[in-house]
Amino acid sequence: VEAGEVIFAKRRKIDGVDSRMLEDALYAFGFGNQCSYVQPFGAGHINETYAVFMPGENGEEELSYVLQRINIHVFKKPREVMENIFGVTEYLRQSIRAAGGDPDRETLSYIKTKAGENYYEDTDGLPWRCYNYIPDSVCYQSVERPEQFYQSARSFGRFLKQLDGYPADTLYETIPKFHDTEDRLKNFKQALRRDVKNRARTCKDEIQFVLDHAADCSVLMSQLRAGTLPLRVTHNDTKLNNILFDEKSGQGICIIDLDTIMPGLALNDFGDSIRFGATHAAEDEPDLSKVSFDIDLFEAYTKGYLETAGDVLTENEKANLAWGAKIITLECGMRFLTDYLQGDTYFKTQYPTHNLVRARTQFKLVQDMEQQFENMQAIVKKYS
Ligand code: ADP
Ligand code: GN1
Ligand code: MG
Q1: What's the rounded Cα separation, in Å, for the pair 367 and 88?
Q2: Residue 257 CB–ligand 2 contact under 6 Å
Q3: pLDDT of 151-166, one tens digit each?
Q4: Ligand index nearest the alpha carbon of residue 49
């Protein structure tokens, strides 16, 4: 099904297992009877996301809920994912309320099933969850104006600060070793040795790129072990399309995709936003001449992030922000390449070399960052 296509509508014959499960899920959350139709939604690489339309007041259908089927290949313990999410969103609601904000707009409100559960398990055993759609919000796939990126930095910085007091030991590790870059390198090497799809011969340069950068994988991990970088409650997936903006004011309003909130490094959150947003090319742009790192966007983000999170971060965290950007970009490229070697079992792909194309854009960005590293560090210093 194409994004935007109506795949379930009342009074239409419904076929296919998915739409039946989807309909069951709608009933489980209590709006099966009234629902007008459902469409595939968004551009995430992991979960199945649907927009749920309900009859509105003026007779037009309104996008009212977001329904998602959690990817159990990625999240093996959905119960733990949902416990984390309910705990964190409840905590955020309180801090937002205390600060005079609107919790219904500034954090996601997950809905329990009619049976009072955090999620619904369909008859295939697959987990579905649901949250209220935030009206008048927009989600971007790439930065249109530097101001937007600056706003997203302020939101992610605020998010780190808001969760500063959250009891980290109550969080489940939803994906073990998620940003353990050394472990990611190990997995890459194993995938390369096994080469199950016989694809290694098609990506020799990319493989060499990873091997040449092996030492970088330890730069932050060794500081974490030494205790010079602290573990914090972090989001771990801070792409631009994991934040909603206010349609009218253009301000960042709400952070979404809370599946990977876990103890982690703030540098990875900072870095992952840079990786995805400080460029004008899509993550899967096949023409590498169009892919470059934009230092002005890096500056816009750094300014916003340090304005809101600067007083939480330690001096050593600030000193490593540029490393955070470079290493998470390397790690992400390595993950795409690993998935390519393993036969595309993790990220959603649209064509056989999709993961390879993605890996290439990441490595191009790493190269650009290496060339601009001193400038990046000077910018961090300027706003520290
Ligand atoms: P995934 O883990 O698959 O990335 P997300 O929770 O990020 O799952 O949802 C996937 C995508 O769906 C998001 O990147 C975004 O494009 C879109 N999306 C999800 N919720 C909303 C929302 N409330 N408003 C607009 N877009 C949304
Ligand atoms: C995935 O779920 P999504 O599309 O927001 C991935 C991230 C990667 C990203 C690359 C749980 O993010 O770690 O950085 O793709 N999420 C998971 O675009 O693995
Ligand atoms: Mg997402």
Answers
A1: 36
A2: yes
A3: 999 999 999 999 999 9
A4: 1
